[in-house]
Each structure stands twice: as structure tokens, then as C-alpha cells.
Write a structure and sequence with these properties.
The protein is an alpha/beta fold and 333 residues long. 26% of the residues lie in helices and 21% in strands.
Length: 333
């Protein structure tokens, strides 16, 4: 026997809107008669790895071939945040075959992720296909690694053209795709920032740089972030053991080791100097982009005519970001 109100008092908020429903939340809702509970459904996501050079993990390597790591990496990342995978596979380097595949996936998905095909090669087909199928909002970002990142919309579907380099693809996922999914599911804009100290001098570049790092606590109880080895865009090993992303703003005046003038946020902690905090925070959390993604999912029988409209208007419509679409009355996640 327990006293009345010892678990929760009358009028107390049990589960905040936007919360992920786990075992404890389900237990509380069941205890207090929360049946039924209004939720948002899982986002439906498709993944397309492009390139005839891609092999399955179990296939032997041959000259000019590489194994497809991005598809499995992105699938794992999506499943870890509760997305529903509609389709995941390879796309051919033939436009007449790749374009119909993308048309079908756009119609069946809330988000389509492509990997590769967004740079400058003759067989980088994602860029020209998106120009014909969707409204392209941007094709490059002020980011290292991951500059050749495309974002487009076709009706209600979001399309992310991620780079082919594994690190660039995973950083782009953390910064852009995860932020969009958090907004779509009502989970909020992203993790909060925390103050850290850099464990070593860090040289800035001409772009906002996301360095994979290990975050530790020193003897004085301070958070210390240190780059996890070489930071090349193809070195996926830099993510092994990393629990942070340090964001270094562009320029040549960043303080060095041990000064403590850094901020970070989890997971993938972001470090910025206070003087440039606003600019770097916007770049890191994609504020304008998240506003676009702030909407409820359409129903599964959504009006597909909008997809046709977007194609017919694509060349007359300026490539700019539409205003915020914030649904403040949406149910909890």
C-alpha cells in the first residue's frame, strides 16, 4: 500500500508532448488510464546507394570496386532513432533506370536518402534527376566534411542527397537528417549545448568543420573534447569510439588548447567560440531548415497530385526556402 499521490499528483504532467514512448512512459500511461494515446507515426524512409562500383559486404573486392558501407550505416542510424525503412538498396548508374526508382520511392516515403551521385562526375546522376523531379533548395553547404549535399522537396517528401564519402554522409545525416526527423516526430530542435575544453590546438579551415571527437571528464570535473585521429572525409574509423562532434567555425583566430572557450551539444557535441556562437549554432543546427521540417506527417493516403505540381513549377519557382511551417497543435510523439 502506498499513499495517494506518492507517484504523481493530480494535475501533474506525466508525459510531455514530443517525448519518445518507452517502457517507463507506457507504464505511467497504463497506470493512469492513458488509453488511447495520440502519437505521431514513424517516418517512412528510403535509402538509395548509387554507383555500379558498389559491392555487398560479403562479396570479394576486385579492381575498381568498393563495398557499400553507406547503405548499412545509414539504415542503422535511422533505425536507432525510430524510423521505418521502406526500401534500402543500390541504384544503377543508368538514368533511365535510376529515375523511375526515385519516382517510386518519393511516392512511398516521407524521406528519401541518396548516397553519392551529387558531385561533379559524369555519372553523378542524382543532381540532374532532382532538377527534373523536385524543387531543389540547395546543392552545397558551408560544411566540412560534406560540402556537396543536396536538399530538395517533391510534394510532401523530403529528399537528401548525401555525399558518397562515408564520413561526409554520416555527418550530413547527424546535422540535417536527424534534425528533420526530430522535428517531424515532435522531439524538438535538437540537443542542448554544453561547455567543453579542447584537448589540443585546432586549426580552422575555410568552412564550418565537424571533427569527430572523444569527450571525457578530467580530474577537475571539466568536459574535454579531443579529435579522434585523422579527420579525412573517407576515414570512417574516426567515428569509432567517438562520442562527440566538435564544430570549428571558419577563420584563423580560434583559441587553442585548454582555454575552455568552446560549447558542445549531444549526441555529436558541437564546439564553437562564444564570439561566433550564433553563426556556428545556426550552421550546426540548420535553424531555417528545421523550420521547414516542422510539420506533421501527412496521412498515408496523402494527395499525390502535389508531386506532379512540384515538377511542373520547378523551373519557374525561385530556389529559396519557404517560410516556417510550425504545427503547435500536433500530438505527442
Amino acid at each position: 500500500m502506498r499513499q495517494i499521490g506518492s507517484d504523481a499528483r493530480a494535475g501533474q504532467l506525466l508525459v510531455r508532448a514530443g517525448s519518445s514512448i518507452g517502457p517507463a512512459e507506457i507504464g505511467m500511461l497504463a497506470t493512469y488510464g492513458g488509453d488511447p494515446v495520440t502519437v505521431r507515426r514513424k517516418p517512412r524512409v528510403s535509402i538509395v546507394s548509387t554507383g555500379d562500383e558498389l559491392l555487398e559486404p560479403g562479396e570479394p573486392l576486385t579492381l575498381g570496386k568498393i563495398r557499400d558501407s553507406n547503405r548499412y550505416m545509414l539504415r542503422s542510424a535511422l533505425e536507432s532513432i525510430g524510423a521505418e525503412i521502406v526500401w534500402a538498396g543500390k541504384g544503377p548508374d543508368v538514368r533511365s533506370e535510376l529515375e523511375p526508382l526515385l519516382v517510386r520511392l518519393i511516392a512511398d516515403s516521407d524521406i528519401v536518402l541518396t548516397s553519392g551521385g551529387v558531385s561533379m562526375g559524369d555519372l553523378d546522376l542524382i543532381k540532374p534527376i532532382l532538377l527534373d523531379l523536385a524543387t531543389v533548395h540547395f546543392r552545397r553547404v558551408f560544411l566540412k566534411p560534406g560540402k556537396p549535399l543536396n536538399f530538395a522537396t517533391a510534394g510532401p517528401t523530403l529528399i537528401f542527397g548525401l555525399p558518397g564519402n562515408p564520413v561526409s554522409a554520416l555527418v550530413g545525416f547527424e546535422v540535417f537528417v536527424k534534425s528533420a526527423i526530430r522535428k517531424m516526430t515532435g522531439a524538438g530542435e535538437g540537443p542542448e549545448t554544453v561547455r567543453v575544453t579542447l584537448g589540443a590546438d585546432t586549426e580552422p579551415t575555410d568552412r564550418v568543420e565537424y571533427q569527430r571527437a572523444v569527450l571525457t571528464v578530467d580530474a577537475d570535473g571539466k568536459l574535454v573534447a579531443s579529435a579522434n585521429g585523422s579527420q579525412g572525409s573517407s576515414r570512417l574509423a574516426s567515428f569509432l569510439g567517438a562520442n562527440a562532434l566538435i564544430v570549428i567555425p571558419p577563420g584563423d583566430d580560434l583559441p587553442g588548447r585548454g582555454n575552455g572557450r568552446r560549447h558542445s551539444h549531444r549526441p555529436g557535441l558541437i564546439a564553437v567560440t562564444p564570439r561566433r556562437a550564433n553563426r556556428a549554432r545556426r550552421a550546426a543546427s540548420c535553424g531555417w531548415f528545421r523550420n521547414y521540417a516542422t510539420r506533421s506527417f501527412p496521412s498515408r493516403d496523402r494527395d499525390r497530385s502535389r508531386f506532379g505540381d512540384s515538377r511542373s513549377r520547378r523551373r519557374d519557382r525561385p530556389a529559396r526556402f519557404p517560410g516556417p511551417r510550425i504545427d503547435r497543435n500536433s500530438p505527442a510523439a
